Amino acid sequence: MKTLIGVTGSSIALVADGIHTLADTFTSLAVWIGLKIARRPADTTHPYGHGKAEPIAAKVVAIALFLVAGGIAFESIKAILAHFAGTAELAAPTALTLYAALLSIFAKELLYQYQVRIGRKVSSVALIADAWHHRSDAFSSVAVAAGIAVAVLAGETWRWADQAAALAVAVFIAWIAWDLFKQSAAGIMDTPAADEVESEIRRVAGAVEGVLGIEKTFARRSGLDVLVDIHVEVDPRMSVETGHEIASRVTRELTETIPEVTHALVHIEPYRGTPEG
After folding, report:
1. Which of 7, 16, 162, 190 could bond to 220 as cystine, CB 3.0-4.6 Å?
2. Whether the predicted pLDDT of 274 surpasses 60
3. Exposed / middle / buried, residue 235 (Cβ in 10 Å: 0-12, 13-18, 19+)
4. CA atoms within 13 Å, Cβ hemisphere of 47
């Protein structure tokens, strides 16, 4: 709708905003595919699951936004230079384009609030990244509305404000893309899980019968999942079989109690203190 009204209403800024929104459709599709793949269970070729498909999808989103920003910036700068060089005359945007931009601000902010709430609930980087597209659309529409208003109300001398607004949209999109690109790297580079997640892991493991202490805990995030390596201390006098049973209980408790934990490798250590009982 924005692109069509922008073309018929002579607003390159609204056209740019419409292209930005159209790009969201394709990037949302990429996120959806990534999330579908990430939820697949582990198999013989992916023993740790498919969780990294989710941050990879987020990177696809970021790259798509970079390309959109570059195209909009190129066309805007070209039109502004042509205007000031006197080689091209810019058409005045119509009032309808301003109304479309204002409607877009309202609609996109509602979509952002809805999607980011779900993304935070399920701890999905890709879903939050995609939600930010709606927020960036809302912000860019603010710039578009301002540029159109100046171009319409200030007369022919200020018609280039519409092009300037389109350029502002491009800069904002590029900034959002860079931020999302950095965030999605966390899921691919196996960065540590949040402190509260690691604390919960230690609490759950420490509560298992037979566990006398926790020596080390390593928890890394892989897309939507958390992979755990944990060293638990047990009575050094117990049999290997009993120690194995305790390790199995720790694994089961971690994966069943903490939804994010999909894999836990438990290493048995001898307890150096005085075992209770």
Report:
1. 190
2. no
3. middle
4. 3
Amino acid type, 155 = G
Produce one character per residue of 14-34: b if its CB has 16 or more CB atoms within 10 Å, e if not.
bbbbbbbbebbeebbebbeeb
- Give yes or no for residue 180 having a pLDDT over 60: yes
Cα–Cα separations (whole angstroms), residue 206 to 75, 113, 200, 240, 253: 61, 38, 10, 19, 10
Whether the per-residue pLDDT at 206 is higher than 70: the answer is yes
SS3 44: coil
Q: Where are the alpha helices (DSSP H) in 39-124?
A: 53-85, 95-122
| Distance (Å, whole) CA 188 – CA 83 | 45
Torsion of CA 117, 122, 127, 131, to 10 degrees: 10
Phi, psi of 262 (to 5 degrees): -110, -15
Domain 195-270 carries which CATH code?
3.30.70.1350
**According to CATH, what is the number of the domain 2-188?**
1.20.1510.10
Amino acid identity at 169: V
